[in-house]
Amino acid sequence: MKEKILRGGLCLFGLMILAGFFLPWVKVRVMPSQTAEKLADQIGRMLGDDRGFDWKDYVLMTGHDFKTAFNDPFEGVSGFQIPASVHEAGVRGILSRNTVEMFLGQGAIPQKSLLFYIVPLLALAGVLLGFVGLKKRSLYLIPIFLNLLIYLWVRHQLSLTDFSRSVNQIRLGPGLWLCLYGLLFLSFFLIIPMLLPGKTGGKSKAKPRKN
After folding, report:
1. Fewer C-beta within 10 Å: the chain N or C terminus?
2. What is the DSSP letter of 206?
3. What is the pTM assigned to this prediction?
4. Measuring CA to CA, how many Å separate 145 from each of 39, 140, 149, 151, 173?
């Protein structure tokens, strides 16, 4: 029963991450009078604003975040599209390049954007580990560490930006939130195999046979 719950949870959050990867991560409403150059400058300044530390930025999704993410949920650039869009010259390209810079810093944007593909790979690896199981329970710490590292790093970078003050209404899409919370909960479910006996988490002690 425990293994069924474990595998069901891993599949659920793995699919949640995969779905989020193909849904918009970032979107923007361009004002009619806004040129591409002004838009790029506005996005760059907004992604650099520092709001100060607040622990809620690392855990919760605010009402403003939820409203803006699920208003026109299919509008914007997805995590899957960002690596290809960084080469474009229009609004999509500007938004994609600034998104990569926000998460991974300036320089080598096309190369850094390829790191976004790590997200779905971690989802697949987590689900696979849950079904196959490992004899060495400590190996589960690798995907757990990577999932939490990505989650905390992205939440930290997002905490440096006040999207609600954007003149152009720069917004986070639902895909990014699905990926983030999917990675977080997938990490928790990967801890379970480390605690279970048997195939999914170490060796179980054999019960003595009664004569």
Report:
1. C
2. P
3. 0.78
4. 36, 9, 6, 10, 25
pLDDT band at 137 (very low <50, low <70, confident <90, very high): confident
- Rg of the chain over all Cα atoms, to the nearest angstrom: 20
Give alpha helix (H) positions in the chain: 2-21, 36-46, 63-69, 82-85, 91-104, 109-113, 118-132, 141-159, 174-195
Question: With left for phi above 0 and alpha for psi between -120 and 50, is residue 210 left, alpha or beta?
Answer: beta
Contact indicator for 56, 111 with CB cutoff of 8 Å: no
Per-residue buried b or exposed e for 88-114, using 16+ beta carbons within 10 Å of the residue's own CB? eeebbbbbbbbbbbbbbeeeebeebbe
Model confidence band, residue 185 (pLDDT cutoffs 50, 70, 90): very high
Chain Cα centroid distance, residue 102: 14
Closest CA to 53 of 147, 150, 155, 179: 155
Burial tier of 137 (Cβ tally within 10 Å: 0-12, 13-18, 19+): middle
* Residue (of 191, 94, 186, 179) closest to 140 by Cα position: 191
- Return the higher-pLDDT residue of 108 and 44: 108
pLDDT (tens digit per residue) in 144-165: 999 999 999 999 888 877 665 5
Q: Which residue has the tokens 């971690």?
A: 122
